[in-house]
Design brief:
about 250 residues; 3 domains; alpha+beta; Arc Repressor Mutant, subunit A; about 45% helix
């Protein structure tokens, strides 16, 4: 996927990102990969065309394994980004970042712990720090020293939990606002589109739309546009109602 870009600069296309990989000097590519592996490169990777071969591999993986499933993955990524932004506005950096991945914790005073390793702290003043959601349940760090650093973390929420059904709505909440509407409200702990809610609840598109209009009018959910999608998410009042019913 194209990389995130700072305000005022358009994001790079996938082709431009591949071109950057291919243009990486041979010595730099080998040194970066050795640093990632934590030791010397295997003989098969200690080669002058490492950057070119790496770009070919990234292009193949994107074309054959990611691109066919990209619309679904993009919806998951957008939902996570909106959810994190909501948490940040509601509870600050601690609520948005704590638990993002194992070992990640906001320490206060502009300090962020990214893992439990006993490494020296790094000052990032003047550099970009990117938080990059991914759909596999893995986390890692990446960098382009000294300009850009990234914390890659797994998405959370109902859409990311493949193989698991949505959390059932509390019986008390179902009795109050109806079980179908309660199911929609419970799922909106993570921002979701109408299409996603239809898939998760099994309800019809018209029914989900009516529930959302009523929840919007009651102030229990809000909506925000993300790209071509409109995502719905619970307000603080909606959170209180769900917690109280439990």
């Amino acid at each position: 996927a194209p990389d995130p870009a700072p305000p005022g600069r358009p994001p790079s296309s996938f082709a431009e990102e591949l071109a950057r990989i291919r243009a990486t000097p041979s010595a730099r590519a080998r040194a970066d990969l050795a640093d990632t592996l934590g030791g010397p490169l295997p003989a098969a990777l200690d080669r002058d065309d490492l950057a070119e071969r790496a770009a070919d591999l990234v292009e193949w993986v994107w074309t054959h394994t990611v691109l066919p499933d990209w619309p679904r993955r993009r919806r998951i990524l957008e939902a996570d980004v909106i959810a994190r932004a909501t948490q940040l506005g509601r509870g600050g950096w601690a609520e948005a970042l704590n638990g993002m991945s194992p070992g990640v914790r906001w320490l206060g005073d502009s300090r962020l712990q990214i893992n439990t390793h006993d490494n020296l702290p790094r000052e990032l003043g003047g550099a970009q720090l990117l938080f990059i959601p991914v759909t596999p349940y893995r986390c890692w760090v990446c960098w382009d020293i000294p300009y850009r650093y990234g914390l890659v973390y797994p998405c959370s929420g109902a859409l990311a939990e493949t193989g698991r059904g949505p959390v059932p709505a509390p019986a008390a909440l179902g009795a109050l606002i109806g079980p179908a509407r309660a199911a929609v409200l419970v799922l909106l702990v993570s921002p979701l589109s109408t299409t996603q809610l239809v898939a998760l609840t099994g309800q019809g598109l018209g029914s989900v739309g009516r529930h959302l209009r009523i929840l919007l009018d009651a102030g229990l959910v809000r909506r925000r546009r993300a790209g071509r999608s409109v995502l719905y998410f619970r307000t603080e009042a909606g959170d209180v109602v769900v917690r109280g019913a439990r």
